[in-house]
Amino acid sequence: MQAHLVSQPDETAEETRRENYRDAMAKLGAAVHIVTTAGAAGRAGFAATAVCSVSDNPPTLLVCLNKGSSAYWPVKGNGTLCVNVLSSEHRELSGLFGGKTPVEERFAGATWTELPSGSLALDGALASFDCEITSVADGHSHDILICRVLETQVNEGGKSLIYLNRGYHTV
Amino acid sequence: MQAHLVSQPDETAEETRRENYRDAMAKLGAAVHIVTTAGAAGRAGFAATAVCSVSDNPPTLLVCLNKGSSAYWPVKGNGTLCVNVLSSEHRELSGLFGGKTPVEERFAGATWTELPSGSLALDGALASFDCEITSVADGHSHDILICRVLETQVNEGGKSLIYLNRGYHTV
User: Fold this and answer.
1) Cα separation of A164 and B7, whole Å?
2) pTM: predicted TM-score of the whole model, two decimal places
3) ipTM passes above 0.95
4) Residue A6: inside a domain, yes or no?
5) Which residue of A has its CA nearest to B168?
6) Which of A94-98, A124-128, B1-5, B113-117 is least confident?
7) Residues A38, A82: contact at Cβ < 8 Å?
8) Residue A112: partners with Cβ closer than 8 Å, 6 or more residues away
9) Of B30, B129, B138, which has the smallest distance from its Cβ to A30's Cβ?
10) Does the pLDDT of residue B166 top 80, yes or no?
11) Which site among A8, A49, A152, B131 is 20 to 30 Å from B15 CA-CA?
12) Residue B160 near residue B126 (C-beta atoms within 8 A)
């Protein structure tokens, strides 16, 4: 009887592949958002660049949410969220919602208005999208939340906050 | 017997809702990409802003593809694609891949290198991601293509092409 050769995944090669992927993704500029949720499952919010438009008929967007995020269970439990597109005035706020800051301190850093879904719109956001989650696709470490847009708000005149090459830019 | 009142969807209200959605999405800045595919189902390419990172373990991104796009069946048939992140030098090329230009004229507008999957990487792109499609989520008018990243390429030094407020910007 011959021993089976079991090929072990080469962890160093995998880590190099992931590093190369992150370096390439640093070249992909993206708007910065604060995504909020509120309701029976609790209030939470997180900063995200992985947001994009899916369809305008019906108005649909998607948000990628890390399964390890403190916001994960509140968002999934409430089934609703608000995507706020940050302006260049919101750099510090983005840091607050991207770190380990407790939830109440995060929200104390700005002024918010409650939307029909119960989620919170950021005063001064370039745009806010009040959403309900209609389906979820698996993205390994992340869930891809596919959301019906219930209502939109727009503020004219502000500059956009873009994250690119691991830093913030004003456009 | 009483007649049933059938509520008709209010088409004007729906169209207003879609317009409001598009106006709000115009505030969301995004990198511009040319997505290519090549193989037994044909060669095709399209310009897209709806691309984002999903996970780095394993490296995974998503692309939203209009079901009415000329690239739809080639991409679905080949099951592979390359996402090329455009630099500020690629404004005209973006227009070429966003319009009704025949496929051979589109590709004649730049220089390309064939990747392991058979897809074409754009010379001078800030980054290129060679991908295979691993699953598809429904996004109404669009498919959400969830893709495993096989290989990445990066070019240092170029400026980024960002689409925001219905126009191009250099960052």
Assistant:
1) 48
2) 0.93
3) no
4) no
5) A171
6) B1-5
7) no
8) A36, A120, A121, A122, A123
9) B30
10) yes
11) A49
12) yes
Q: Is the pLDDT of residue A7 over 60?
A: no
Q: How close, in Å, is residue A159 to chain B by CA atoms?
A: 9
Q: How close does chain A come to B146, measured CA to CA in Å?
A: 8
A80 close to A131: Cβ distance less than 8 angstroms: yes
**φ, ψ for residue A67, nearest 5 deg:** -65, -20
Chain A environment of B17 (Cβ under 8 Å): 59
Which CATH number goes with the domain that contains A133? 2.30.110.10
B22 assigned to some structural domain:
no
- Min Cα distance B57 → chain A (Å) is 7
Give B-chain residues touching A31 at CB under 8 angstroms: 28-30, 164
User: Measuring CA to CA, which residue among A78, A59, A48, A79 is closest to residue A151?
Assistant: A59
Verify whether the Cβ–Cβ distance B85 to A28 is below 8 Å.
Answer: yes
Record: contact A137-B146, CB cut-off 8 A: yes
- On whether residue B7 sits in a domain, the answer given is no
Q: Which of B17, B24, B64 sits opposite A52 (nearest CB)?
A: B64
Residue B148 CB coordination number (10 Å): 18
Residue A141 domain flag: yes
Give the total number of structural domains in chain A. Answer: 1
Q: Which residues contact A22 (CB under 8 A, 6 or more apart)?
A: B56
In angstroms, the Cα distances linking A155 to A88, A97, A123, B114 are 13, 21, 9, 44
| Mean pLDDT to the nearest integer, B109-114 | 97
Range of the domain at B70: 30-170
Tokens of B135: 């699953």
